[in-house]
Write a structure and sequence with these properties.
The protein has 692 residues and is an alpha/beta fold. Among the domains are: 106 residues, Nucleic acid-binding proteins (OB fold (Dihydrolipoamide Acetyltransferase, E2P), Beta Barrel); 189 residues, 3-Layer(aba) Sandwich (Rossmann fold), CATH 3.40.50.300; 158 residues, Rossmann fold (3-Layer(aba) Sandwich). Helices cover 36% and strands 18% of the residues. It has 22 helices and 22 strands. The strands form 4 sheets. Strands 6-7-4-3-2-5-8 form a 7-stranded mixed sheet, with no helix packed on it. A 7-stranded parallel sheet has the order 12-13-11-14-15-10-16, with helices on both faces. α10 links the parallel β12 and β13. α5 packs across α20. The chain starts with 16 loop residues before the first helix and ends with a helix. Bound molecules: adenosine-5'-diphosphate and magnesium ion.
């Protein structure tokens, strides 16, 4: 056996050249490519000779001898080929079963009396006779020993056009049996004798993930390969983290200003807010640069914590910047900052994209300069290096809306500033350890008290008249409402059309109230005006596209209607819903779905049940996979093939330990086993990688 992963398929012993051609047509030319085509499930096609034929709802596997064959014809419908078989050995010999292939008379040329077969399928009974329709079968060779497709735990692959299950399985079988272990280098350090993976290595795992001797081995192989993937990930994040620490930061110690700020607030911070702030301030006071994630559900009050932290930088004579993903949000933060921070004598400035296009950085609050202690903006902040000469802290709000690269870019602007990233997509622990593995984590797991609760219902679209009546009552009580129109296909244009139509409808239905319209095609100033009017209560109702999704805070708004709710992910709906329930009044969220869409109703049920963002995002993860839920957070990282992200927390921790140890012993990762991984791990340090 001298086959390596690089060997061409036409050198694989026993692999018929006919199959090699089929595979080559599909672009598979070497061993590694066959190995990388992973089965998506396995079937337990092992048979037990002592078991007799029995009616079975699930497919079963038997070794049989063909005793009689024949083809039956029923006028016009093609022939049915039948093969009568009995068990090949064991206690049940002599018992009969009929294999049937409907409309496949040509099977008579494939299967003949005296053949020994392995068959796999469901057994039915009709008038005392047992039959199996269209079984998967394999004709045993003379000795009846090697079987590829059955009589074992059998891999099942997702197919591309042109390659059949049997072709692929046959290729994998021969590849796995000819592949020399010696040429496959372990990436993981050797497993400990006493540990879960004793006796395992990359070669064994790569083979067993296709053909395993037992279900336990299969599971072990998958876990081994998942650990390998996590290890690569963790080497990267641990190294990035160490690089940041080594880059040397500055101590930013919070003083009286931060305390004054807290006592001037119109509310008392929750325990979770205080704890998070302490964690942040402790990091900031140390000489090493902070690199921390603050996450908490929508409405948990991250903004105050961020402002309090920013004061720590200001008190050390530095600037602090807050970057938000949208203009509306940046302006809202700016307004809050003016309200809370200007009375403390601070100079607050705003920088957003559109204003720059209009020629400069003229701001609501005078010219921006390094006199501004607090800078707030969108990613337009990234373009003004001269604004941020003296940056002590960078806060990035709604981190999942930005890429890793943008984050890196803003950090580069300062002189190793402290960094706080915030996200309102609650993230299960395994994922924070992986995706945000280079960050320390603070969690706000408590919401401010005295909040009105949110009642959520999914309703058919036909109930709009009732909805208008209910809405009118709330508006008469002085409350405000959001009416959201969603993504229609992937086009923002259509989105806007839907919102405009909705706007006209609602204007008629709510003729006694003032209704505003907000969408992405308005100019920044127009958006600004609408938002300001809504915030000031001049508008009772805001018809909007999802531009209001993130962060908007108007406590008097207590009603939200979401049209075509079936088009959103659960986490996104939860975010939207977070716009209400921010004041003392009870809030109402109605999710309108197409009348007959039962699937959507059942999916949305969890939103009716709970407003715990962590539960909702776990549910979303299960349904849609991590890529979708995390959006850009994961971009730039290889997708995980083996890792079941939800279940493998223990593996992630193990991978972390291994990575820490590897980097302690070998900081430059010079070990030969890491040769392939090394460039990937160091890659992102180049300026090019950061600019992507
Ligand atoms: P998010 O975590 O979603 O960004 P915000 O920071 O926008 O939440 O806070 C939501 C609202 O709750 C704001 O109006 C804020 O002023 C208010 N808030 C924050 N903390 C408290 C608290 N401890 N008690 C009462 N209200 C609070
Ligand atoms: Mg927020």
């Amino acid at each position: 056996m001298s086959l390596t992963l690089e060997s061409p398929l036409n050198t694989v012993p026993d692999l018929p050249s006919r199959l090699v051609k089929v595979l080559e047509k599909e672009g598979l030319t070497k061993v590694a490519e066959v190995i990388a085509w992973l089965p998506f499930r396995h079937e337990e096609r092992t048979q037990d000779a002592s078991i007799s034929f029995q009616v079975s709802e699930v497919p079963v596997c038997h070794q049989v001898l063909v005793t009689k064959t024949g083809t039956k014809f029923f006028g016009g419908r093609g022939g049915m080929f039948e093969a009568q078989v009995e068990p090949l050995s064991g206690a049940a010999m002599g018992q009969l079963l009929t294999l049937r292939w409907w409309s496949m008379p040509f099977m008579s040329r494939v299967i003949a009396e005296g053949h020994r077969l392995i068959v796999y399928g469901k057994i039915k009974e009709f008038k005392g006779k047992l039959s199996m329709d269209h079984p998967e079968y394999e004709i045993l060779d003379e000795e009846g020993t090697t079987t590829i497709h059955s009589g074992r735990i059998t891999p099942v692959y997702r197919l591309k056009a042109g390659v059949t299950q049997k072709t692929l399985r046959t290729a994998t079988w021969h590849v796995v049996h000819a592949l020399a272990d010696d040429f496959i280098t372990d990436i993981l350090p050797p497993p400990s004798e006493a540990g879960e993976f004793a006796g395992w290595g990359r070669a064994r795992a790569l083979k067993a993930v296709h053909f395993a001797a037992s279900m336990e081995d299969l599971e072990k192989a998958r876990r081994y390969l998942a650990l390998e993937e996590f290890y690569g990930y963790q080497l990267r994040v641990v190294r990035r983290r160490r690089a940041v620490i080594d880059s040397g930061g500055h101590a930013h110690v919070a003083g009286p200003l931060a305390r004054d700020f807290q006592s001037a607030l119109p509310f008392e911070m929750t325990g979770a807010q205080k704890r998070s702030l302490e964690e942040i301030q402790r990091d900031m006071a140390s000489n090493a640069p902070m690199n921390r994630l603050l996450h908490g559900d929508v409405g948990s009050g991250k903004t105050v914590v961020a402002f309090a932290a920013m004061l720590g930088a200001v008190e050390s004579g530095k600037q602090a910047a807050l970057m938000a993903p949208t203009q509306i949000l940046a302006e809202q933060h700016f307004n809050t900052a003016r309200k809370w921070l200007e009375p403390l004598g601070l100079n607050v400035a705003l920088r957003t994209g559109t204003r720059a296009e209009e020629g400069g950085v003229e701001l609501l609050n005078g010219k921006m300069s390094d006199k501004n202690q607090i800078l707030i903006g969108t990613h337009a902040l990234l373009h003004d290096a001269d604004l941020v000469r003296n940056l002590g802290l960078v806060v990035i709000d709604e981190q999942h809306k930005f890429g890793v690269a943008q984050r890196a870019k803003l950090i580069q602007k300062g002189n190793t500033p402290d960094v706080l990233v915030m996200t309102a997509t609650p993230i299960p622990r395994t994922l924070t350890l992986t995706i945000y593995g280079d960050l320390d984590v603070s969690t706000i797991d408590e919401r401010p008290k005295l909040r009105g609760k949110i009642i959520t219902k999914a309703r058919p679209l036909t109930k709009q008249a009732d909805a208008a009546k209910f809405l009118t009552e709330r508006l008469e009580e002085g409350r405000q409402a959001y009416l959201v129109y969603p993504l229609i296909e992937e086009s923002e244009k259509l989105d806007v059309t839907a919102a405009k139509k909705g706007y006209e409808q609602w204007c008629k239905l709510l003729s006694h109230f003032s209704v505003g319209l907000l969408h992405g095609k308005l100019s920044a100033d127009e958006k600004d005006l609408v938002m300001r009017d809504f915030r000031a209560g001049k508008l009772d109702v805001l018809v909007s596209t999802t531009v209001i999704e993130v962060g908007v805070d108007v406590p008097n708004a207590t009603v939200m209607y979401v049209h075509h709710a079936e088009r959103y992910g659960l986490a996104q709906l939860h975010q939207l819903r977070g716009r209400i329930g921010r004041g003392e009044h009870t809030s109402y969220c109605v999710l309108f779905v197409a009348d007959k869409d039962e699937e959507a109703k059942s999916r949305l049920a969890i939103l009716e049940e709970t407003d715990d963002g962590f539960r909702i995002s776990e549910e979303d993860l299960k349904r849609r996979g991590p890529g979708d839920v995390l959006g850009k957070a994961q971009s730039g990282q290889a997708p995980l093939k083996f890792a079941e992200l939800l279940a493998d927390t223990r593996l992630v921790r193990l991978a972390r330990q291994l990575a820490e140890k590897t980097l302690d012993e070998d900081p430059q990762l010079r070990a030969p086993r890491l040769a392939e991984l090394r460039p990937l791990i160091f890659k992102e340090d180049t300026p090019q990688a950061m600019m992507q």
